[in-house]
Amino acid sequence: MKLEKLPDDFEGSLNISSPQDETPIPGPDLLTQAMNAYSSLTPPTTLEDGTTGPQVPPGMAAMRNKSTTEILAELNKSPLFMTELEANDDLEALKALAYEGTPAEVAGGFKERGNECFQVKGWGDAKEFYTKGIQVLLLEVRKRQTGKGEETDSAEVKKEVGILEASLVNRAACHLELKNYRQSAKALLALGKIEEADDACAKGLSVDEGNVALKGVAREIIKKNEEITRRKKIEAEQMEDAKIQLTPDPTDPTSTISFPTILLYPLHLESDFIKAFNELEPISHHLSYILPLPWDLKHEYTPANVECYIETTTGGLLKVGKKATLLKVLTAENVEVVDEVVKIFVVPKAKAPAWIQEFKTKKGAEKKMG
């Protein structure tokens, strides 16, 4: 085998010790290639700043001078690119159109499903089905208004309008039924019937658990129940050993009778307890040291500025003179002491007429409800 001597500069000519960077230069991306291909086939165009540049497709030209935020907002309007699904009404309509049939047939199907739920008092589900049908038909209306929809036979349009009107009316009926639950709960709450109000509210939420108005009533019921529970607890503690008794000496026939008494402030859901209200004392005697009240920030409750009432056995109200003795009040017609406790309502003069009317309305409603 014959060996040949390599020349001295052989290593340098190969440049083995310092290899060249062979990283390939990236070519244009697909979007750039598409733009270049389009611009090579069309004449240059004048830009808004007066310079000349390659012409781009019409859809991209509309985006040329928009900011990134504006471009993303435009893209989000298309179901293909959208990232905020709940903000696009058309998306729900497009989902609904996934069902086979014409828009009228699809919407009609939703209406029938809604009717089925309505018949069994499933107001919440019925409302959802009607809403889906309405969205489908409103999408068709928008398409026709913008000229983007296909030409539709007049008979088909008339059919769509009929289904749309029926669905809107039926959905309104669902709202009315759900609203009735709310009104019933509020009326019962105003009457102080906490359990009944809670039951009406619970039934409403069982058919539409997301109903904001009913949730608001539910919070009111909870708050009212907490207030009543707190007040009853305080009264129970105060009345632990309270009872009708002869004073000062139960064995002395000349002694007078004292009654446990509650002063009720119905406009503010507050009360005060008097352990021993003697029959010979006028109510003004007790008002003189109880008023003003610590929670009365508007200073509406003063001895001279309030009126007092006691409920009669017939459900009416008897105005109590502040200088009249308790004995005179209790011996009036249709007045009785229930559970050994006298209850006297205290109301600011200016608000008394409205409160009396409200009291009568509540009592009338209680009688109707049995």
Plain-language structure description:
By secondary structure, the chain is of the alpha+beta class. It folds into 2 domains: 97-238, Serine Threonine Protein Phosphatase 5, Tetratricopeptide repeat (Alpha Horseshoe); 245-368, Ubiquitin-like (UB roll) (Roll). The protein contains 13 helices and 8 strands. The relative contact order is 0.05.
Strand and helix layout:
Blueprint lengths: L9 H5 L15 H12 L3 E2 L5 E2 L4 H4 L6 H8 L13 H8 L6 H17 L3 H24 L7 H37 L3 H14 L4 H27 L6 E3 L8 E10 L4 E9 L4 H8 L15 E6 L5 E4 L5 H5 L11 E7 L3 H17 L2
Parallel strand pairs: 4-8
Antiparallel strand pairs: 1-2, 3-4, 4-5, 6-7, 6-8
Highlighted features:
370 residues; alpha+beta; Serine Threonine Protein Phosphatase 5, Tetratricopeptide repeat; Ubiquitin-like (UB roll); 13 helices; 8 strands
Task: Sum this structure up briefly.
Residues 1-29 are annotated as: Disordered. The protein has 370 residues and is α+β, with helices and mostly antiparallel strands. Helix content is 50%, strand content 12%.
Provide the structure class.
alpha+beta
Element-level helix/strand string: HHEEHHHHHHHHEEEHEEHEH
Question: How would you state the average pLDDT, rounded?
Answer: 78
Q: Tell me how many strands there are.
A: 8
Strand content: 5-15%
Helical segment tally?
Answer: 13
CATH class of the largest domain: Mainly Alpha
Terminal residue distance: 126 Å
Q: Which CATH architecture of the largest domain would you pick? A: Alpha Horseshoe
pLDDT under 50 segments (min length 5)? 78-88
Helix content: 40-55%
Q: Which fold name is given in CATH as the topology of the largest domain?
A: Serine Threonine Protein Phosphatase 5, Tetratricopeptide repeat
Keywords: Repeat, TPR repeat
Pfam family, one: Wheel
InterPro entries: Csn1/TTC4_wheel, TPR-like_helical_dom_sf
GO molecular function: Hsp70 protein binding; Hsp90 protein binding
